[in-house]
Each structure stands twice: as C-alpha cells, then as structure tokens.
Write a structure and sequence with these properties.
Layout (H helix, E strand, L loop, with lengths): L13 H4 L5 H29 L5 H4 L9 H19 L4 E3 L9 E6 L8 H9 L16 E6 L22 E6 L8 H5 L5 E3 L5 E3 L9 H5 L5 E3 L14 E3 L11 E3 L4 H4 L6 H5 L5 E5 L6 H8 L2 E2 L11 E4 L3
Length: 324
C-alpha cells in the first residue's frame, strides 16, 4: 500500500508560487517588523546609556520595585535624592508611600461646573515636577481639557487647543481628561517588562527606573493619558516640589513614560489631589469607593454618571456627571 504521506499534493504553477504580494500585505508586514525593531531598540536603551556614561552599573542592575527589600529601596531613594540635588541644585525628600488598606480611590467630575480654566492642568504640572520651559507650558501635563459643543459628548469634534480671552464660552462645555485608573487597564497588559501595574488601591503606577521607553502603553491607552520624556526634564530649581514619592512625582529620567497617579504622595496620606484643591468651581470629587459615607460614594449612588469610552471595556475609576 502506498504511504499517504508520500502522495504528492496538487502541483502549483510558477505564477502561484511567486505570486506578487499586495501593497497592503507588504505594509502590514513592514509595520510589524518596525514595531518589533522599536521594541528591541527600546530594550537595548539602558545598555546604550551605560556605554555613554548616562547611567551607572548599579542603576542598570537595579531590581524591579516589587522585588526590592526595604534596605535596597532606602538606598535607592537616597541615591535619587543625591542625583536630583546634583542636577537641579535642590535636595528633595523622596519617600515610598504604600497603599492604605480598605481604600479604593475614584474620581468624579461635574461637567456642569467645569469652566475650562485649566487651573487643574497647571496645578498638576507644578505638583508632579513635570518638564516645562515656562509656567504656561502644559504640553507635559497629565490633564487635557477638551472644549465641546453643548448637547453631545462628541470627542472627535472636541478642541484641546482653545484659547479665548474668557471662559466658559457660550454654547460650550469642558471635559478634563486624565488617567482613568482603569480596572481593566490595557496599558499594564502590553508592557513587555512589567514596568507598569495596578496597585491595591486602584492606582496604576510606573517604576520609572524599570521602564524601557518602548511606548507600548501609550499606544494601548484609549484616553491619551501617558506622556513620554523625550529629553531631560526642564524645571527651574525654585519650581521643584521637594515632597516626592518613588512611584509618583519624583523627577523622571529622560526616555520613560509617565502618567497621573491621583497624586498618590498626597492621597495616600489623606490629602486631596492637587488638581482638586485648585478647582475654583468645586467641579471635582475624590474619595474612597469602599467607604459608603465618602463623597464619591454619594455621587455614584445619587447622580447619573458616565464613563468615557465605555465601549472599550476598560472599567475606569474616573466618572463624569451633569447637574440639572
């Protein structure tokens, strides 16, 4: 009996074997190759920095935050303080502030009260030691304020670059957007080195010494909530906030992705985020979802709240609502 495995299949013509690929297929393959190359180059970045003398061997070999012993972490915090003082002339106090038990943070924003003044974005810039050329530069701010036409939530027609003499403008309303601290966070799932993760209190954080700057998390985030440091942060010494935390507002190195952490260096100690404290209209509400008596719990029980881009299934901890 003949071996079925040896039975030749139907013959193919030379035209079928060497069939030209389409432009679309070629571009898709090229794009996939470029993404892979970008990831490889990002992964090699620390080695290149070591060769150029931009980082030390100790920094290169530093463990992931979640693997550090208290002694190792304390040594790293003191080293970061010394580096900041050497580079910026200001000695910060950098701490490691852990989540509080029984706490799940959430934010709510009253769109009826928001006037689009951007005070929240400027406060965020100052509090979190974000790079800036001057006090009016909000390019690195974790908060984008969108101007929308009254009557609909249409993000496609929103304007983030509005600049009238006075706000609010007639027939407009304003929607600040920042990290939504998603329960199903796509950014943490795509990180190839697990440099970003979700903490027990719901805050998504980044180990900036572990991040390789591949920007996969930026591509995965449907809210444009992450920022990439293309250069060494530019901050005047007198503008540096010295009250810093390892996972939040310490000055980030060049080449990493940074983001809003609900000001965990404040909120984990019972304070409000900086953006809430400066809001002139009281449009912002922040608190513990697990506390039934908190203001945020009251809002969720008694207001008709919305979440942004509900269809993508990220389950944000950031809510919006209108008042009648």
């Amino acid at each position: 009996m003949n071996d079925p495995a040896a039975t030749p299949g139907p013959s193919r013509s030379l035209e079928e074997v060497y069939k030209p690929i389409s432009r679309r297929t070629f571009l898709k393959g090229a794009a996939a190759s470029l993404v892979g190359m970008a990831g490889l180059m990002a992964a090699l970045r620390p080695l290149l920095e070591l060769e150029r003398g931009e980082i030390t061997l100790e920094q290169l070999l530093q463990k992931h935050y979640r693997e550090l012993t208290p002694e190792e972490l304390n040594r790293i915090l003191r080293r970061l303080e010394e580096e900041t003082e050497r580079q910026y002339g200001v000695r910060p106090h950098i701490r490691d502030i852990r989540p509080m038990p029984g706490v799940e943070f959430a934010y709510a924003l009253n769109l009826t009260r928001c006037i689009g003044c951007r005070k929240c974005a400027h406060a965020c810039l100052r509090e979190n030691n974000q790079s800036r050329e001057d006090a009016d530069d909000i390019e690195m701010s974790y908060i984008r304020v969108l101007e929308l036409q009254k009557g609909a939530i249409n993000l496609e027609t929103s304007n983030v670059y509005y600049n009238p003499e006075r706000v609010p403008q007639p027939d407009k309303y304003y929607m600040p957007v920042q990290c939504q601290q998603c329960r199903q966070s796509p950014c943490t799932k795509v990180c190839p080195v697990q440099a970003t993760w979700q903490e027990p209190d719901g805050i998504v954080v980044v180990d900036y010494n572990w991040c390789i700057g591949c920007r996969y998390c930026m591509a995965a985030c449907p809210y444009d909530a992450r920022r990439f440091n293309y250069k060494k942060p530019t901050i005047p010494p007198e503008a540096i906030n010295p009250n810093q935390s390892y996972l939040s507002n310490r000055i980030r190195p060049k080449g990493v992705v940074e983001k809003c952490t609900f000001c965990l260096h404040r909120t984990r100690e019972g304070k409000y985020p900086a953006c809430l404290e400066v809001c002139p209209t009281g449009a912002r509400v922040f608190g513990n979802l697990l506390d039934p008596d908190s203001e945020i719990s009251y809002i969720l029980r008694n207001k008709r709240v919305y979440i942004l881009k509900e269809e993508v299934g990220t389950l944000p901890r950031f809510y919006y609502f209108f008042e009648k």
